[in-house]
Amino acid sequence: MNSPKVLVLRAPGINCERETHFAFERAGAAPSYVHIRELLADPTRLDSFAMLAVPGGFSYGDDISSGRVLALEMKSSLGPRILQFVARGGLVIGICNGFQVLVRLGLLPCTRGTLDEEVTLTHNLSNHYECRWVTLRTQKSRCVFLPAGLTLRWPAAHGEGRLVARDPALQRMLLDEGYAAALYVDDKGEATERYPHNPNGAPLGFAALTNGNGRVLGVMPHPDRSFLPTHMPNWRRTMLERGALPEDGDGMVVFREMVKVAKAEG
Amino acid sequence: MKAWRIDVLARPEQPDPMGLSALRALRSAGLDGVQDVRSRRGYLLGADLPEAQVRTFARAVLCDPVIDTFVVHAPDAAAQVPPRGTRMVAVVPRPGVTDPVAHSLQKALADLGLPVTAAGTYRAFDVRFAGDGDALRSAARKALANDVVQDVLLDALPAGLPGAAGVADLAVHPIPLAHLDTAGLEKLSKDGGLALDGAEMTAIQQHFGKLGRAPTRLELETLAQTWSEHCKHKTLTGNVRFEGRLIENLLKSTIAKVTHDLARDFCVSVFVDNAGIVKFDDEHSVCIKVETHNRPSAIEPFGGAGTGVGGVIRDVLGTGLGARPVASTDVFCFAPPDLAAKDLPQGCMHPLSLLKGVVAGVRDYGNPMGIPTVNGSVHFDENFVGNPLVYVGNVGILPTARAKKQARAGDVIVALGGRTGRDGIHGATFSSLELHTESEKLSSGAVQIGDPITERKAMDAVLRAADEDLFTAITDCGAGGFSSAVGEMAEGLGAVVELGNAPLKYQGLAPWEVWISEAQERMVLAVPPAKLERLLAVCAAEACEAVVLGRFTSDQRLRVEFQGTVHADLDLHFLHKGLPVRVRDAVWRAPKLAPLSLPRETDLGRAWLAVMGDFGVCSKEWIVRQYDHEVQAASAGKPLCGVKEDGPSDAAVLAPKLGSRRGVVLANGLNPRYSRIDPAAMAECALDEAMRNVVAAGGDPDYTVVLDNYCWGNTRDAECLGELVRATEALCALAMRYRTPFVSGKDSLHNEFRAGDRTIRIPGCILVTAMSVIPDVARTLTTDCKRAGSLVVLVGTTKDELGGSVYAKSKGQLGDRAPRVDHEVAHATLRGVARALAARCALAAHDLSEGGLAAALAEMCLGGRLGAAIDLDRVVVQSTLRAEQILFSESQSRFLLEVPPDRLDDLRANLGPVPFAVLGEVTKEATIVVRHGGADAARVAVADLEAAWKRPLDLDATLLSGGAK
């Protein structure tokens, strides 16, 4: 079985493309970088890929608001094409800034199948950027490649990560109907809105979203910085307890599952 | 120029973090009676845009449709009258200050198919406040703006966008020197901000006398930049008369000599490039550079620190034939953040504002660049009040085969990255002058504002071009701008430059301004003509602007033209070798200090809490968490560690090649307080501390390189220079013993502030940065205790060394003896501990530095949420000591280890002759119990130590409680 191809998007200010590329490679995929300028010049390039990854960073400096300028650049030609890509079975992941871009494009949560901005990722309640490891609990969601019931530690690193829906009813619906793919949880494993376990104050503890057909996933914390065992903050303790380093860090599951699904369907 | 003004604000039911943060800031600036603040993000668009299009743009781009609303003010509209009891504060950039968002606004206009017009930004706040307007304005100036780059308007919106710039003065301007005497030459230098002394001006006068012509303004500026202290290190490379000796070229005969004499085979390139290059594995090398950005940060901490980070990143990017930056390290020195307002000299920013501004500057440059900030420290001393220190460092990785560069005659000079503006003119020469009360006003031209995304695009372009082997040499535009970059690359060749090709931010720049501007984010490359087309294509693909600025020749001349008119025709030999050698006198006089007179400690627990709460010792988590320390996925040892990830780490551990566990351990050492007693002790302790940090984290002392970064008060003063010479000699002697070569260094030798008749001079500091290469990051350690039942082992001898200590400081004393390093023992200790840790004899290791045994043990316990029971009678001491002397002594060459009982014999075997003692054990109950003289001496809850340690610089909490001064 061939390695499924992943388009790793590059753009001015995107800065997590190398680790995202490496994590996919490690999971057995065949990633390649495509710069937004090349993709805009020929949007059909997307069609030869099984997966699309929009990595983290500060696209265009996150000027105006995070992901806004890149989303605007992509909106008219790439927005509908990615929608088709997803409808045809493509898988999409947006990490951190990539998540912000997908939200501004209307690809997440995309509850009505149209490109509307239903939610936003906005300024942390602390009003500043923060880098800290958080604990996530994956939900029973629509997402076809994020298994439910996992407790994962990933690093969050953002200034605009507070996921807010158009209104509280929609926020609740996103949870109830399986769009909220992962929540920030506290030491007891309960979803939380409280700092620091929830680093940005997102209502209901939202950390990740999927779309209607579960083929698009946006995550604020970074699986691309937690896929190796030595990425984990307490790997020395784990090594002491188990006598050896585990094979993977907590972020690896996403890349492995995406590749697994792509292979199974491909 | 008139403009549309668009205010975007969160809808009333939405939280407004920026408003809340402004509310806290106004309150902590001492403004009483503010009830509420709501923020507005303001945008300006050229008045030529029709209103319908302005609204379309606001709706589609400026406003977050989920949570925001917006208001459009017509170009001619007067500001709205705010409702009663509400005032509106607008913070607007001053004319000429770079607005990095403007480009994105214009791009967004184009992407939306709208006409592109002038654009800009501002911020505004609706403040519910019934008090005095002047008080509000003054608090807003302090808390919400920086006066140097921003203006504060009350109940008014900005009138419009900056208008078209003036007409450029394109004349050549010969500057006659022949008729001037030395005083006249010095005056000319001073009035022109050239920072050249009489001898240097005379050398220029003589050179042009022989040529029979006057230098042009651009030539004079070129010489001033190239000969500046910043670029040429005149003092350190000059000759010094010291204690009856003449030291020729101080740097060469001390620091560089160590490296040369040691001749370590892992040094690939030292002292010749932007950064020192060290072998990493068979294929790659790592390079490292640390420098200072003190001056710009004193005036405008946000822009100064940010562009410092940007500058050192470019240094690494321009090392060899392009290195990929993988990590940043930042070390700051400030006056104490609780300094009373009455003690703040006029013309100084309050240290708390400086600290916050510097941290924000590092954050907002480093994070968008995608380069993790992995290591650093912060130090406090009253004498940094006028001259804060901002050290910025960067590590890169490059193929060893591309470690050398050489431009060739015929190569094209390509400038790429940011555009040139008036920013930072005279930065290189400014850094050689004394700061004083008026500096803020006089030097605002030296302020630089960063634009990290432009630098990121330049980095992406350079690294892609490097992979394709498209250039023969590269350097960054730092101090002196094009003049230094092109001048350096042309050495041994020659160059012709057409300045008219340089893309400008705005019109109106004179040719000499283009030539020496220190506008950020620019790189200069030497490109073989056959590869030019491909290089320009790569830059275009990466959205990075690139132009041909000229070519390298072989005539040993630097010719600079502007639209065909020659503005400079300089002999390169004179430019690079014509600088007269400086001779300075130096003398060492030990300061007259009172010996310590500390009464017997009556409450060890309280003293312990006071030491943990010292600004130098306390947690820096508030700072650390604002930096991205995880990007690039190389992190294997983080700035914070332990079960709750809040304990301090000694060093950063990185595996910079994805897929390989080979790694780098990075740490630093600095203690300015020791310098007040003896600069030699300060220098030795800095090196020993940097080495201890590296070793404690699992680094290899036999594969470690170091960097020396000097910041001194005023080396024109013989006593001050004497301190520097003394410190340097002590540092070099110890480095020879450790066999650690210096691979890079930098100096900032004029850190003195004049306030009225008072001169405040910083304590001389040498920051030592240490970098070790290790085979496997999975063999590194952290400082947090892992398991109850482990043994607590103290390696090294504890002496009566409280002079300069945090404990003495907490009692208001300094002392007259600082800790010294016993070379023999220190080296054996570093190697013995490294051997023991490599053999996995310990579960945790921590170096003992500020706060001594007490601070180290507390930090290990709080990281692991465990306790310890120790007996001070077991400590290896040099003489009989009291409990507080053992707990708080800052004797060097000591480590605290957590050792499993069954590993003790192995530890002993590995340590060999190095003294150590088992003090007790790690306990499950999170309390530290101390016995001394056969009796209980102290019992302290780890939670209390943690609280004392976390409180002082937890600025979010401090501001929330309105407790900041």
Main sheet: strand order of chain A: 2-1-3-4-11-10-9-6-7
Largest sheet of chain B: 7 strands, mixed
Given the C-alpha coordinates, what overall shape of chain B results? globular
Round the mean pLDDT of chain B to the nearest integer and report it.
Answer: 93
* Tally of helical runs of chain B: 32
Most residues in contact, chain pair and counts: A-B, 64 and 66 residues
Question: What structural keywords apply?
Answer:
heterodimer, A: 266 residues, alpha/beta, 9-stranded mixed beta sheet, two-stranded antiparallel sheet, 29% helix, B: 965 residues, alpha+beta, 7-stranded mixed beta sheet, 32 helices, globular
Q: What is shown here, in short?
A:
The complex is a heterodimer of chains A (266) and B (965). Chain A is an alpha/beta fold and 266 residues long. Chain A has helices spanning 17-26, 36-41, 68-87, 97-105, 168-176, 235-242, 252-265; strands spanning 5-10, 30-35, 51-54, 91-95, 119-122, 130-138, 151-158, 162-165, 180-184, 206-210, 216-219.
